[in-house]
Write a structure and sequence with these properties.
The chain is an alpha+beta fold and 431 residues long. The protein is built from 14 helices and 14 strands. Helix 2 packs antiparallel against helix 3 and helix 7 crosses helix 8. The longest helix has 35 residues. The N and C termini lie far apart (77 Å).
Length: 431
């Protein structure tokens, strides 16, 4: 590629329009549809499906499209939405979008961002530049001929590697002649409204991801729905779940900061991971304590109670598996779980400037005290009669009646059950 061509590509100059102004009409109609779709709360994939359908109807010979962008997510670095004429829309999430990853650095988008090239029109069956990028070689081998890529920055400056303020798009064709000047002109004219709609949707997705990661989807959905004022809330019935790491103070003193954080993450993977696997909501992580709940308003009391008990067993099974594979941290980890059932207030409390959305009420105190009893009774899992009486009898569970016990700060004694694994529930086993 010549220096003059690279300079032209960096400028991102639009292709000149021909004398037929029908391109304006086509692109204008598509732009109006994009704006209308962007004003709704529909998924990004729906927008892409609609835009691609309209472009094809307008005679643009598209066989493939891809838009990629970075996201704020604890598990993934980026997200792509692809479209092909035979399979429709497909969404993928990616990790390791770093400069030590050759799959990323050998992509045409990485080169465009590093070289500040805004657009890249290529004939895949003719241009030598295709040989620089494995992706373009693969597309050429699959019969694609035309390729047109754009990098869009959401800020005033150029897009940089690692930023979430921008996106990259590419269109591909299998037409023998690739894309015509009219085709590229139409794609260029819809780029601004499409990028604006995608920017709004991406920011919305990032907000959802962040809220879900730090507060859980149940809280995140309510915050985004407008429950942001002090006192906003509702009463819910749920199975509550509480775990606590044994000897956490001693472990924190013995280990380095990095070592203790690694240990905590293994513990959280065991305990909170089991809750999520069973469909529960991790509401709060305070130090080494985990508060979770299984709402009964949709699934019902029996399903919520059963899932909470299963999650307690799976948490201990995950820890046992980690110890069996000789995970370095697992040998030092032991934790107790308390499971309870009751009504809670689910909402906002705090000062005007600093609010906390969570569960409040006597049931929350009772599940924490139930977990305390797991240490006193020498049992890894202790459940109250309120949750046990509502749960289904299932193979693999064993419940032993531990009798009535006074819980610290709770005026009425509770009947407690010890929950163990690998034995089928039966009346002979206590239930």
């Amino acid at each position: 590629m010549t220096d003059a061509l690279i300079h032209h590509l960096k400028e991102g100059a639009p292709a000149a329009l021909g004398p037929d102004d029908s391109e304006f009409s086509v692109s204008g109609q598509i732009a109006d549809a994009i704006i209308a779709s962007g004003l709704t709360d529909r998924p990004i994939s729906d927008l892409i499906e609609q835009v691609m359908g309209r472009l094809v109807q307008a005679g643009v010979p598209l066989a493939r499209m891809m838009v990629g962008f970075r996201i704020l997510h604890p598990l993934f670095d980026g997200m792509t939405i692809g479209w092909t004429d035979d399979e429709g829309v497909d969404v993928e999430y990616f990790q390791a979008l770093r400069e030590d990853n050759p799959d990323f650095t050998l992509s045409p988008f990485y080169w465009m961002i590093k070289e500040n090239v805004l657009e890249l029109p290529l004939r895949l069956d003719q241009d030598d530049m295709v040989d620089k990028f494995p992706l373009l070689q693969r597309l050429r081998n699959e019969g694609y001929t035309g390729y047109y890529a754009r990098v869009v920055s959401f800020g005033e400056g150029p897009m940089e590697v690692g930023t979430t303020d921008g996106l990259a798009l590419s269109w591909s064709s299998k037409e023998p002649e690739g894309f015509s000047a009219r085709d590229i002109s139409i794609m260029q004219q819809i780029l601004a409204p499409l990028s604006l709609a995608l920017r709004v949707m991406i920011k919305d997705q990032i907000a959802k991801n962040t809220l879900n990661a730090f507060h859980g989807p149940l809280v995140g959905e309510r915050i985004l729905a407008g429950s942001v004022k002090r006192g906003d809330g509702e009463r819910l019935t749920a199975a509550l779940w509480y775990s606590d790491l044994r000897n956490s103070t001693g472990l924190a003193d013995q280990l380095s900061v990095e070592g203790f954080l690694e240990l905590l993450n293994v513990y959280f993977d065991c305990a909170a991971g089991a809750v999520i696997e069973e469909g529960g909501q991790v509401l709060d992580i305070v130090g080494d304590a985990i508060l979770a709940f299984f709402p009964a308003d949709v699934a019902g009391e029996e399903a919520a109670s059963t899932s909470a008990l299963r999650a307690a067993l799976k948490a201990q099974e995950r820890l046992a598996a980690a110890k069996a594979r000789q995970c370095p941290c697992a040998a030092e980890i032991n934790f107790g779980v308390g499971v309870h059932f009751g009504d809670v207030v689910f909402g906002n409390a705090g000062t005007r400037e600093r609010l906390k959305f969570g569960v409040i009420g006597r049931t929350v105190n009772e599940v924490a005290r139930t977990q305390d009893m797991s240490k006193l009774l020498g049992q890894p899992i202790v459940a109250t009669d309120q949750v046990v009486s509502r749960a289904r009898s299932e193979p693999g569970l064993r419940l032993n009646d531990m009798g009535l016990h006074d819980l610290r700060g709770i005026p009425v004694a509770k009947r407690l059950w010890a929950l163990r694994q690998n034995l089928q529930l039966s009346p002979a086993n206590g239930r």
